[in-house]
Amino acid sequence: IAEVPASPETSQREQAGREIAARVATEAARRRAFAIIAHPDAGKTTLTEKLLLRGGAIQLAGQVRAKGDRRRTRSDWMKIEQDRGISVATSVMTFERDGVVFNLLDTPGHEDFSEDTYRTLTAVDAAVMVIDAAKGIEAQTRKLFEVCRLRDIPIITFINKMDRESRDVFELLDEIEKTLALDVAPVAWPVGAGRGFVGTYDLLEPGLHLMAEGSKAVRLSGLDDPKLDELVKPELAQELRDSAELAGAYQDFDHERFLEGTMTPVYFGSALRDFGIGHLLEGLAKFAPPPRDRPADSRTVTAAEPELTGFVFKIQANMDPNHRDRVAFLRICSGRLQKGMRLRQTRTGKAVPVNAPLFFFAQDRQVAEEAWPGDVVGIANHGILRIGDTLTEREGLNFSGVPSFAPEILRRVMIDDAMAGKKLRTALEQLAEEGVVQLFRPLDGTPPVVGVVGALQLDVLAARLVAEYGVKSRYEGTPWGLMRWVAADDKAAVERFRRSIPHDIAEDHDGALVAFFSSDWRRNRAAEDFPELRFLEVREQH
Ligand code: G4P
Fold first, then answer.
1. pTM of the predicted model, to two decimals?
2. CB-based contacts of 128, cutoff 8 Å, min separation 6
3. pLDDT for 11-49, tens place per residue?
4. Ligand 1: residues within 6 Å at CB?
5. Is 355 annotated as a binding residue?
6. What's the confidence (pLDDT) of residue 460?
7. Which pLDDT score is estimated for 323?
8. What is the mean pLDDT of residues 483-507?
9. Pocket test for ligand 1, best of 37, 51, 272 (most atoms within 8 A of CB)
């Protein structure tokens, strides 16, 4: 059979398609989407500020500072949260250096753990773990690390505050290995300690980064290089030779193991003194992966595919609370996003116009003409988009993995003014879409129940109900200590279960069935009585 020759238009289209595919691949390859994980006070804000300064994204670090200054009293935090300007601007920060585009996704910094943090971590390809050199691994570091491990997110470690009295380096490294079960591969080694800290020795490409030299590397042939004795005091040089030799006991850096999340390269520095930041950035550019393959329900999506795919991992109310505009944060997974595109929302099949996708810089937002895999853009909408939504150019696929966690705190929201019932329902629905709380409608018609992972979320809800909707509410306790999503193929069994506990059954925001239990014992009992049902602690949103 003779092949039908391609028409000129077809080959032109194919040519254009190939060009776009090549651009997508190039742009994807130079992007790094990452988050910083740290226990409060370890220096996340200071480091963020210094990274942005280096990337030329901001002239003055004022905006980020404002966040650092919210000294974690609850009321301060809420005031800042209500001032949406700052939190929107700092949700995603983009900066470019040596041809690499860094997208730094902010994880909420307050001590109370919220779902927002988990969701943000679904949208990054790597994380920088900041550790206070005097404190080592702290509670929040460990929690955040566990989330990264769950998703095999590769981690670069930055041991901060080296300019101050710090713990012994070996002790710190051993602690990381032991408490996190993560192999460490130091790539820098501190020279001197505490007040006597002068810089680091580069173990991968022999050389010294000295604080006094503005941390620029001075290359050496190795630890035996006599230049070392000219650059630092002889006793420091000797000490370095001895300890760096002992550092040889740690494993060599193995890029593959880093990518699979079982090994972390370790850098040392001082965010406050702007030391070690350049080295860390080099590491991020060199080792952190470009946008990774993402599993979807029907197949795995590769970043270099020419057609656009992405998912919404965060929703935030717009700057102006009088207009109920919301910005949905879309992480692009493949293809090219162009201004003016109409995307397909998989959940509903509806078209979502993207007329003014927003890019976020430290201080302002700009309309993006194009965006690429690894980028995050803001899409303004009136509540059409939800957390977990997949948007595509055409294909009806769904990314899995933006999770909802079974809340441990369950409260009824009550109002004294009966007239405000409708307003409260609308408000709760909108705030649930934004992910402030989870909302459940009991099937027995009793008042709505909200669920949260961290108690602070309840304060935020109450404050926003008043400030943005004029609804004064109060919480009433419930007899329940846990909830589970109910999944089953057997409809009759679900029906029997519903009838067995008519007052402990509700629907979540998406209409999925949930059951409330007063105790673990009750839940186990239900699982025994209804073996056809599954009681899920995590629900992946679609
Ligand atoms: P966080 O976002 O992780 O909570 O920490 P943040 O950057 O706000 O830093 C917490 C405190 O630690 C700040 O001091 C900050 O200046 C200090 N810090 C951060 N990095 C370093 C470092 O490398 N060396 C030293 N010595 N200190 C560092 P603060 O006194 O609590 O606040 P501020 O008055 O300086 O704003």
1. 0.83
2. 34, 35, 36, 37, 47, 155, 156, 157, 158, 280, 284
3. 888 888 888 899 999 999 999 999 999 998 999 988 988
4. 38, 40-46, 68, 109, 160-161, 163-164, 270-272
5. no
6. 82
7. 57
8. 94
9. 272
Rounded CA-CA distance 124/37 in Å is 12
| pLDDT tens, residue by residue, 190-214 | 999 888 999 999 999 999 999 887 7
Centroid of ligand 1 to alpha carbon of 392 (angstroms)? 42
pLDDT in tens, 63-104: 444 444 433 333 333 444 444 333 444 578 888 888 999 999
Q: Residue 286 C-alpha to ligand 1 middle, in angstroms?
A: 27
Residue identified by tokens 């590397």 is 217
85 is in an annotated binding site: no
Percentage of the chain modeled with pLDDT above 90: 58
Mean pLDDT of the chain: 86
311 Cβ contact partners less than 8 Å away, ≥ 6 residues apart: 123, 330, 331, 333, 388, 389, 390, 391, 399, 402
Protein residue with its CA nearest to atom 21 in ligand 1: 272
Ligand 1 centroid to 397 CA: how many Å? Answer: 44
The answer, yes or no, to whether residue 227 has pLDDT greater than 90, is: yes
Question: Which residue's CA lies nearest to atom 33 of ligand 1?
Answer: 69
pLDDT digits (tens, 9 = 90+) for 435-475: 888 999 999 999 999 998 778 788 888 988 988 889 999 99
Residue with tokens 């879409």: 433
What is the whole-number distance in angstroms between the Cα of residue 39 and the centre of ligand 1? 12
Please tell me the distance from the alpha carbon of residue 159 to that of residue 420, in angstroms, as a whole number.
52
Q: Give me the mean pLDDT over the 365-375 stretch.
A: 84
Distance CA 291, CA 132 (A): 29
One DSSP character per residue, 201-212 reads: EETTTTEEEEGG
**What's the one-letter identity of residue 12?**
Q
Does the complex come out with an ipTM higher than 0.90?
yes
Bridge partner residues of 346 (DSSP): none
108 carries a ligand binding annotation: yes
- Nearest CA residue ID for atom 11, ligand 1: 41
Which residue's CA is minimally distant from atom 22 of ligand 1?
A: 161
pLDDT for residue 96: 86
Cα-to-centroid distance, 42 and ligand 1 (Å): 7
- Ligand 1 center from residue 378 Cα (angstroms): 30
Tokens coding 160: 């901060």
| DSSP-assigned states of every residue in 99-121 | TEEEEEEPPP-SSS--HHHHHHH
For ligand 1, atom 31: residue with the closest CA: 41
How far is CA 204 from each of CA 155, 207, 245, 275, 453, rounded to the nearest angstrom? 18, 9, 13, 18, 42
Nearest alpha carbon to residue 50 among 365, 279, 275: 275
DSSP assignment, residue 325? -
The residue written with tokens 């994807």 in the block is: 28
Task: For a ligand 1 pocket test, name from 39, 46, 76, 195 the mutation site with the most ligand atoms within 8 angstroms of its C-beta.
Answer: 46
What are the distances in angstroms from CA 278 to CA 69, 127, 333, 350, 443?
25, 16, 28, 45, 56
